[in-house]
Amino acid sequence: MRKQWIVGVAGAVVAGLLLGACGDPESAPGQAPPSAAAPDPSSTTHRRAATASPGDDVDTGGSGGAGAAKPAPEVLYLGDSLAMENQTVLGDLLKDDLDARYTSAPYSGTTLCDYLEGTADRSLVPPRDKAAALVRRLRPDYVVLQFWGNAWDYTPCMDGVTYGKARAEYFRRYTAAAEQLTDQIANAGGEHRPTIVWVLQGPDPMTPDRVRRVNALYAKQAKASGDLVADAGKAVSPAADRYTWTQYLPCTAYEREHDGYCTQPGRGRTALHHDEDYLHFCLAPTTSKPKPCPVRSPGITRMAREITRAIADARTDGS
């Protein structure tokens, strides 16, 4: 993996700022986190995974592992800071397991509406990286969307609507954006309409009901439009309680068998979060520029494996 990943500040006093890319406004009312500055469109390339950039010609190397009769899938990955830190691991898994062609274009701090065309003047995503623009250019088979459900009062396209201040309007806006984004992706795909994979999120340690409702919104949209869900959040939740936050979980068989993934083998458990960041899953300390996570991080791997599995199962089922 590459260097460092996303802005943050250590310490419990300012822990709310670590939610800045996609968190809850009640932790730091009226403050935009250090990573909230809109990305300079000229810097988009180095915000993507090194694996591929939109428009690149990539050799697929043959048919995918999900079925010899099917060509390798083209996968586009969009999202916020969670997608930013996950993007390299997910790309590697998709390539290894499905021989996929892969492009990622996440932007930290974004919401669904940031990827809508028609929001260029008040969006953290430049026009060339809007979801529909990328679909027209890349013609992907799958568009993976991973959004925590940014609730801060700084994402321009949300017009100041936050979960903490206007809960009903927050969910109304998110529902409308999910419907619009689905329509824009479908229309951009035309006869080659990509399947959308809505990634369900892990527990919110501050407002558990918020992320539960965001996940329900994603699942409802996927069902309405015939798309998919990947419950990546379940992989980072306790088996007995899907929406209870925890820093540690028992090591899986995969983690015990792969060096560095079971972080506390003597106690049979692994870390999901860095001690100073209870939202993100990268175990490296936060730094000043959003980047893919540079260290082995079990939470990231768990989520990426679930997204990969969902796509593989869909291909097996003929979706």
Automatic annotation (TrEMBL):
Signal peptide: 1-23
Protein's name according to its UniProt entry: SGNH/GDSL hydrolase family protein
Tagged with keyword Glycoprotein: no
Record bears the keyword Signal: yes
Keyword tags: Hydrolase, Signal
PROSITE patterns named among the record's database cross-references: PROKAR_LIPOPROTEIN
Residue numbers spanned by region Disordered: 25-70
The organism's place on the tree of life at top rank: Bacteria
UniProt feature, compositional bias: Low complexity: 25-43
One example GO MF annotation: hydrolase activity
Natural source organism: Streptomyces gottesmaniae
